[in-house]
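DM between two lab members

TW: hey, do you still have the FAD-binding protein entry open?
JB: yeah, one sec
JB: this one, 476 aa:
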Amino acid sequence: MGFDLLGRRWVTEAEAATGPSFAGVPELDGELVLDGASRAAVATDLGNLVHHTPYAVLRPRSARDIAVMIRFCRAHRIAVSPRGQAHTTYGQGLSTGLVIENRYLDRIHSLGPRTAEVDAGILWKDLVTAAYGHSPRRTPPALTGYTALTVGGTLSVGGIGGIVGGLRTGMQVDHVHELEVVTGTGAIERCSRHRKSDLFEAVLGGLGQCGVITKAVLELVPAEQRARAYTLSYDDNTVFFRDLRTLIERPGVDHVYAEFSSPDTTPTYKLHATAFYDPPGGPDDRAILKGLSAAPDIQDIGYLDHVFSIDTAIDTVREMVNWDRLVKPWFDVWLPGSTVEDYLAEIMRTLTPRDIGAYGAGLIYPQRRAHATRPFPRLPEQDGSPWAFVVDINTVSDTLDPDPGFVEEMLDRNRRLFARTREHFGGVLYPIGSVPFTSRDWRTHYGDEWSTFRAAKRRYDPGNVLTPGLGIFGHG
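TW: and the structure you got?
JB:
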């Protein structure tokens, strides 16, 4: 197997007839596949909005596989995109060149009381299960709401504390001790805060621009046995935010997130707060709920049941509809703590049931700024508030074949809404959604960090071959 330099396509040796334009592929531990079904399977992402069929798919079994193929692709000007579970929604991880399916790197190499070393393709849910079964019980300090995502994928974006973390922890990128990375030159590097720190900082939340994460040493913390979940409902923006701000500062509360829907539904907001504990003790309900305006629904569940609750909900939808193939023009942004309340009050006046859909969700996640230590992902400028909030409008089509105007309508909504978010509310993009960005938009997005990020790109991916789907450095 190799690459036809004149025809610009991957071919078998027999197809190329061993002509002078044939460049043979190096020996691999894993496999390089060219068949149509394998290539079509990685031609889109969760959004089903953008489609790019790659020349070939690498299923690596080692960091060496990735290194030799990146060197090969760099030499022949072939774009390379690493792929985890592809939970972006606007083609961020797609490429017409080579797609690396990192999920084939899926080992837990070590598991101790303070850290775990894992391959980038391991799912967070598998790490959580293994760490919780460890003696003593352990857990990552920050977990995304949906845990069937790869470690490498969420570390490349940021990894907000959707189901664990956010109040007293940073994002997932803030709890990484060390990485193994294959750079855009094909070098295999170990990096940390103290070793090649520029690469470490550029890769965590760096959207795959400077290297492909192949291993990570992750922090672990003690895990409690139980979770007490408090659910409160609201139809008033001011009252909801008053209780939200109370709960995120309240001692004894370990996690908070919220849901919102279009204003013609009741309730408009649902606030979810969780306190973790070990029996026979338990949370002080009276202290946690003191002064709140809404009466709570209270439920006690096991820690793992809480962690996997969003996974369970998504799996239920999968049984009802073809969830993975529905169209998802998501909108995801960071808002400063000082403007988020006015922001929600404004957009709630414009939302309709079509903006979210029967299978979608509006979501709000708080993050204490003091615990967000990495330069990437980008957060809003400091505004005097100790908090920043991710706001998601996770639009999902009701059918596999929505009406012809649905996609363009929602992309146009995202463009207009993001422009107002940035210009009037100080928001920045959380880059998993479907907001078309130009190179100029990306320069604005990175702000004062743009020159540092660009320098890292030139140092570690001088051929500009990695992750072209975002169009940050002029390709897309």
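TW: got it. The mean pLDDT is 95. The CA atoms of residues 229 and 274 lie 5 Å apart.
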